[in-house]
Design goal:
The protein is α/β, with parallel strands linked by helices. The chain is 29% helix and 28% strand. The chain contains five helices and eight strands, in the order E-H-E-E-E-E-H-E-E-E-H-H-H. The strands form two sheets. The protein has a four-stranded mixed beta sheet with strand order 1-4-3-2. It has a four-stranded mixed beta sheet with strand order 5-8-7-6. The radius of gyration is 18 Å and the shape is elongated. The N and C termini lie far apart (55 Å).
């Protein structure tokens, strides 16, 4: 395996592993596609030359995406959590991930166009959610889709 990570989270796609990995890598710094494996001639699982798997990193975290066909689908039982620096980064990632068929959920959760679940949570929101005014903050958070740091700050202040 050389310098490749021994442990990776594997994401199952029907046939979108490479475009999904490339899209994800474009969202976060220190990300990139590391290796693409293609089906050889005579392989019964896929068309020769088509993408079988993609090894990539998101913010230095290793992942493997496979084109496994329609047998399994992604679900909310597993998600990628991104602790954003500020509202601007939260807004940028939210917009990109919900574009072109992505769907918003509650409390910073969403599904992207490929069906992968994400949690986009500002670091400041995490501090407020477990701080001394957590009860008011959680009440405000439960009414949000994309997390609004200013609204959580206001809830913590009792406004």
């Amino acid at each position: 395996m050389g310098d490749r990570s021994k442990v990776r989270t594997c994401l199952w796609f029907n046939d979108e592993a490479l475009p999904a990995a490339e899209f994800y890598c474009g969202l976060l710094p220190e990300s990139g596609v590391e290796h693409v494996e293609r089906y050889p001639e005579g392989h019964e699982m896929g068309t020769p030359g088509s993408v079988a798997s993609v090894e990539f990193r998101l913010g230095r975290v290793p992942y493997l995406a496979i084109n496994g066909g329609p047998h399994f689908t992604l679900s909310e039982a597993a998600s990628i959590f991104v602790a954003t620096e500020d509202q601007a980064e939260t807004d940028r990632l939210w917009k990109a991930l919900t574009a072109d068929g992505g769907t918003e959920s509650q409390c910073g959760w969403l599904k992207d166009r490929y069906g992968l679940s994400w949690q986009i949570v500002p670091q400041r929101a995490q501090q407020l959610m477990y701080g001394p005014e957590a009860t008011q903050v959680w009440k405000a958070l439960m009414g949000m889709k994309k997390i609004d740091i200013a609204a959580l700050e206001a809830a913590a202040a009792g406004d």
